Each structure stands twice: as C-alpha cells, then as structure tokens.
C-alpha cells in the first residue's frame, strides 16, 4: 500500500439481523488479507456495529473501517457511507440523501436491480454513486447497474454485501486515496475508483 492507495474497500454487515459476521471476525480477516485493508460497515437500518468494529481495528495502522448504514427507504436500499448515526425518519430517498449531504457523507444506491433495489427510480434522486458490483447480485443485475451508473454519469462502487464470513471480500474497489475516511469518501465522489471482482 502507498499514500495514493487506500487498499480495497468492501461493504459488509456485522450486526444486521440477517448477518452472522462479528466485528472481530471482520477485523481479523482484514489483518490477514494480503491487500484488502478497508471495509465499510453497512448494517441494515442499524449503526450498532460501527463503533465496536472501529475500536477493534484501532490497533492496526494499516486497517481502515468506514462507518455507514444501509437504509431501507420507501423506494429501495441506499447506503450512507461516513455516518455513525441513523438518518432522521421518515426514510424516503429524499430524506436519506439530504441527510448524507448535510454531514458530508456519500450516498450510494445499493444493488439497484436486485430485491429491495430501486432500479431506474434511482434517476430521480441526487445520490453520489451507484453500486455496480455487488457480491450477492447476478452478473446480469450488476451489468444493469453499470449501465445505469454510466447513463447517470455517476461513480460505480463495489460491495461484497457479506452476511457471512465466507462472503467477505468477494468483490472490492481499488480507490486512489489516503488511509482516512474523508479521503476515501472524496475519492468515491470524484469517481477515483475501480470496481473489481476479487476472485478469479
């Protein structure tokens, strides 16, 4: 890793009701991984896992945890990267995006062409990026997401969307940034990232 490469971020769930991943397991796997050293914690409608994971990662100077959340809005899921708090309700796409902008976070349309995704409705909202490579989405759904991001002229992110340890790091994003949260968020907004499959 160098000063211009933050490592390879990947989204994971740690305290979601449908997740089996514990914060210590995630940090241990980041410590052991050869090049993925950044992970965003995006539990469903909860930020309970963020602080614990950040604290566990603190002794590792080469690991960065990006706090976040995956909000179940009325029109589909939106990731908010860079928050340790939940947006105020009601959780509409507009209120979640406005909340993100108010705290200088990054809002990402999650898996737009899968269950709970907002699909073409994403065009109506002022989000910062589209998740174009999701570890739990089909190739066809990811390709549709890539086309959507391109047509909207928005950056494309990658997330493993891991709910169990075996799903961690299936995909990643190579980001040109320093190893701090604000630098990574700024790079995402600028589109200074490449979504990639980790395996194969």
What can you tell me about this protein's structure?
The chain has 200 residues and is an alpha/beta fold. It has a single domain (9-197), classed as Metal-dependent hydrolases (TIM Barrel), CATH 3.20.20. The protein has helices at 23-32, 48-57, 93-102, 139-152, 181-190, and strands spanning 9-12, 38-41, 64-73, 76-81, 106-109, 129-134, 156-159, 171-175, 193-197. The protein has a seven-stranded mixed beta sheet. Strands 8-9 form a two-stranded antiparallel sheet. Strand 2 (38-41), helix 2 (48-57) and strand 3 form a beta-alpha-beta unit. Helix 1 (23-32) runs parallel beside helix 2.
Keywords, please?
single chain; alpha/beta; 5 helices; TIM Barrel; disordered N terminus; 24% strand; 7-stranded mixed beta sheet; two-stranded antiparallel sheet; 200 residues; 9 strands
């Amino acid at each position: 890793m160098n000063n211009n490469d933050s490592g390879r971020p990947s989204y994971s769930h740690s305290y979601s009701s449908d997740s089996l991943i514990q914060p210590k397991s995630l940090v241990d796997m980041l410590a052991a991984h050869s090049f993925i050293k950044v992970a965003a914690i995006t539990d469903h409608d909860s930020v309970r896992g963020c602080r614990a994971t950040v604290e566990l990662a603190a002794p590792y100077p080469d690991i960065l945890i990006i706090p976040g959340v995956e909000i179940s809005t009325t029109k589909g899921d939106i990731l908010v990267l860079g928050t340790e708090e939940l947006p105020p309700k009601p959780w509409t796409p507009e209120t979640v995006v406005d909340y993100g902008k108010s705290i200088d976070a990054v809002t990402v349309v999650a898996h737009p062409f899968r269950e709970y995704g907002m699909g073409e409705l994403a065009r109506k909202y002022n989000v910062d990026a589209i998740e174009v490579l999701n570890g739990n989405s089909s190739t066809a759904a990811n390709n549709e997401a890539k086309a959507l991001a391109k047509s909207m002229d928005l950056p494309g992110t990658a997330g493993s969307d891991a709910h169990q340890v075996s799903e961690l790091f299936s995909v990643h994003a190579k980001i040109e940034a320093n190893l701090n949260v604000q630098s990574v968020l700024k790079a995402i907004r600028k589109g200074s990232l490449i979504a990639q499959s980790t395996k194969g």
